[in-house]
Amino acid sequence: MSLSQGLTRAPRPHAIPGAIPGAIPDAIPSASVGVGLKPEHVDALLADPGSVSWVEIHAENYMHPGGPQHRALETVRRDFPLSVHGVGLSLGGAHDLDGGHLSKLAAVVDRYQPALVSEHLAWCGTVGTYLNDLLAVPYTDESLDLLVRHIDQTQEALGRRILVENPSRYFAFTISDMEETAFLTEMVRRTGCGLLLDVNNIVVSAGNLGFDPLDYLKGLPLDAVGEIHLAGHAVRHVDGVEIRIDDHGSAVSETVLALYELTLRLAGPRPTLIERDSNIPPWPELAAEAARVASILTPEREPA
Amino acid sequence: MPGVAAIQEMIGRAVLSGDEPALAALIDGRGLSPMQRIAIHRNNTLITLTEALGANFPVVKALVGEAFFAQTARAFIRRAPPDSPVLSHYGERFADFLAGFEPAAKLPYLADVARLEWARLGALYAADARPAAHDTLAAVPPSVLPMVRCAVHPSFRFVVSAWPVDRIWDMHQPGWDETETVSLDEGGATILICRPHDRVRMARADEGTLSLLFALDMGQTLETAAQAATRGSPGFDLTGALACVLSLGLLTEIAVPQSARDNHALSTPLSHSETSA
Asked: What is the ipTM of this complex?
């Protein structure tokens, strides 16, 4: 079964201290729900995961050599398959990829043997300056060539296929000469990478830039989707203009859940992650949200 | 039409600093000005990096309060944005920045509190290593002791301050006795920091102990290291210093030279070469 059909397999893990060889869960089934791993949830997750069957980490939080955070992840990794999500590689950057950062990403992947590895269609700074944000690229041939070269380089360095996430956008470039969907389609065709389809990002961008989310979905190579992200966003008003901010600071909105349901109808079941990076709720609240998403992903299951 | 590199340079400057008139032609404002669109990214950058600094320097934040910290952080972020996406390593220059930050001049100890928090952060994320047992050196015959070499734990950090910054740090931890006060007149401290297992620990020491650790870390024998410590601190107490250093978990491998082992017919291995990966 190929990754595009949802089931993914990593090489047999060998780097998890204290693990029983062969007993580490290494695949993420297509109809399964994961959450972004937060240190404050580790004990509760291990005690009662509910509908949650895998976890995702931000690679950058595990790029230091030692400390208790690694120990916590090693413990979680013995029971759960893992997705490693990078936020700082700047695949869309004009400058060369930071080789040091790519090596650190490779080290995290090697250490924790994730089923999935993903990054973003975005840039996050210029040489020597990291802005801690995911910024849009213009959709031009020059941008596409840069992105393709960086994805090729990353997949080569990691020795595996990666998933690349569609961006949340706050403005459009006047110089773009193709649609985002065409740009993503070409990216997939030229690099063989998969898509990490962030449904919240579609709603955020569609609101901010005024496009139809359904048209957008239909414009994508959905068979390349290896993972789906769901998250909450904030709505603000600037001079009377509504702006959606992708802050991962609240529960997944009803709009996003409705579009998610539609996505599943078009693409079939895919591993689905709930992202929550600020206003972190107590575990039972997140577990309840995961149960609801699980009931959408596998309708025969009722929410707990 | 500007290339991608030029566009990203412009947006990068606009996010951190302000207006970049040339962007007006490149960004579709859709009811807002292009710079209002860029301001959304500026907010993302400043808010999330302020949070990252607050997480790395919680006691500095508690000392100055949320609002003042946010202002300070924004000034720092603009002056010294991160050079890497690994934000647990962001703020190396924060203490120096605070030392020269005029609005914080009334808190002369603030920069050293930041140095202490930075040192603790470095210890937290340093490589893991198993500390030597407290009684390891007691098992070494006294005649061999001078030739022993000790590896210093990778999480070893230190702060030398003219202020009691360790006590100021303690004050802001849960469980601090509210009736106890810290006076700046208590004077300064040399503070050793180490994370032998999962928790960062710190203890006061004299400068001789610090000299001893430097010398051991450079691979000197215990005898040479003790001599270096005594040169700088004439009343240096080697026994007390070793007890302090061992109880903090600051030493990992204790290596007895092969020749000394042969001479003294030591049968038990004294070195801990096992360190976690």
From this structure: 0.90
Do residues B133 and B269 make contact, with C-beta atoms less than 8 angstroms apart? no
Q: Which of A296, A303, A256 is nearest to A276 (CA)?
A: A256
Check: CB of residue A246 under 8 Å from CB of residue A204. yes
Q: What is the DSSP letter of A11?
A: P
Domains and CATH numbers, chain A: 3-297 (3.20.20.150)
Chain A residues whose CB is inside 8 A of the B38 CB are: 171
Q: Which residues of A touch B155 (CB under 8 A)?
A: 66
Cα torsion B107, B108, B112, B118: sign: positive
Predicted structure pTM score: 0.91
Exposure on the CB side of residue B234, measured as CA atoms within 13 A: 0
Q: Note which residues in 28-57 of chain B have CB less than 8 A from chain A.
A: 28-32, 34, 36-41, 44-45, 48-49, 51-52
3 state SS of B151: strand
Averaged pLDDT in 10-residue chunks for chain A of 304 residues: 40 52 79 97 97 98 96 96 98 97 98 97 96 98 98 98 98 97 98 98 97 97 98 95 95 97 97 96 97 92 50
